[in-house]
Design goal:
Length: 253
């Protein structure tokens, strides 16, 4: 029984998503109709002509490694497949740092709720937002100059939590300073994680679609990103098929 090490030409085959050729074969034998249906869905999306296999794998890596998903098996799988598809290790690390800002999104909801509840609790002084410090202002201006946009809630975060804000923006900006991906590719990753079933975030999706178009991404590339995000729907099938195969109580085959 050997582990599956697909070539770049084989990446579009559903069998290559399983950890072992034999596991894929048994999944097909156990439920042929299910296998064919999932295979058809995978092939229809993966065969899209508008993104390269390299970029498809980087998008899939971003989807599974994002803080709203964190699927260890799929992270390992798509990091390895990205390298097979022609991505560099720098590309992979670029993806892994690019998606960090997703975990900041709860602050956009949490801070207004906190300020509102402080007011209701009669603690209006605690609900006051301090002035923006020169250091935060400098970080803000640098971000706008480099990235071309800003969100108002980041001003609030910077004024309330300047130490967190500085470290967060530094992490956000690192891929843009030293990463290997193009600006359009990085914006496609942001679109992917903001349109995923595990984190459907319309304000971010809309903003990053605007940015991606500005950097030269096409409508069809963005539509392909949406379809890749929908492939999260087959992950339960893949993990479940592997779990069933590994269950010692399963009948011998």
């Amino acid at each position: 029984m050997k582990s599956h090490n697909p070539t770049a030409q084989e990446l579009g085959q559903l069998e290559t998503l399983f950890p072992d050729d034999a596991v894929a074969a048994r999944a097909r034998a156990d439920a042929a109709g299910a296998f064919q249906a999932v295979n058809g869905f995978w092939n229809a999306v993966y065969s899209g002509p508008h993104l390269t296999p390299r970029m498809k794998e980087l998008v899939l890596l971003a989807l599974h490694a994002s803080s709203s998903a964190l699927n260890a098996d799929a992270i390992r799988r798509h990091a390895q497949r990205a390298l097979v598809a022609g991505a560099s290790k720098d590309d992979v690390f670029d993806v892994l740092v690019t998606i960090i800002p997703l975990a900041n999104h709860p602050l956009y909801t949490g801070i207004p709720v906190l300020l509102d509840e402080l007011q209701k609790a009669g603690r209006a002084q605690d609900a006051e937002i301090p002035p923006m410090s020169p250091a935060v202002q400098s970080i803000r201006e640098d971000f706008i100059q480099r990235r071309g946009y800003w969100t108002a809630m980041r001003d609030t975060i910077g004024r309330l939590m300047p130490t967190y804000f500085a470290a967060f923006i530094n992490a956000c900006m690192e891929p843009w300073r030293s990463g290997s991906l193009s600006p359009a590719e990085r914006e496609l990753l942001y679109i992917a994680i903001d349109c995923s079933i595990s984190h459907t975030y319309e304000p971010g999706m809309r903003m990053h679609i605007q940015n991606a178009l500005r950097y030269g991404a096409t409508r069809d590339q963005i539509l392909e990103v949406f379809q890749l995000a929908a492939l999260l729907g087959i992950e339960g099938y893949l993990l479940g098929a592997v779990a069933i195969d590994a269950d010692p109580r399963a009948p011998a085959r």
